[in-house]
Give the backbone structure.
Amino acid sequence: MAKNTVCLWYNGDAEEAAGFYAATFPDSAVTAVVRAPGNYPDGKEGDVLVVEFTVAGIDCIGLNGGPAFKHSEAFSFQIATENQEETDRYWNAIVGNGGKESDCGWCKDKWGLSWQITPRALSEALKANPAEAKRAFDAMMTMQKIDIAKIEAARRG
């Protein structure tokens, strides 16, 4: 186990979420499933309590803690993509599996966890000279899933 690990709270479905992430993103896997050795407030002995997994190289723990806490946009995974095909694949996987679209390249998975599917072309455009960055930013502000061709066209003016 890594010294520093992201712990994500789930309402009994951490194993399902971890399996989805492992199947969707490269360098991802479910590495351990720990069952509760006794009853606890939102579960019973033998229930899946903790799932250890990796998402795109980031070590995580899914804790089945019950309904007390919900995910919020204050935390998100940001996945850098190389092209439109990769952007579409991840976006469509998350949204198509019960997730929801949001603005500016953000979406939520069906467990309420936020994701930023961010093409490298967008990140580079936002670091360009001020005029190019402003045009790319303005274009991004009109999008849900990022359209790389539109970002690059806006950058060129």
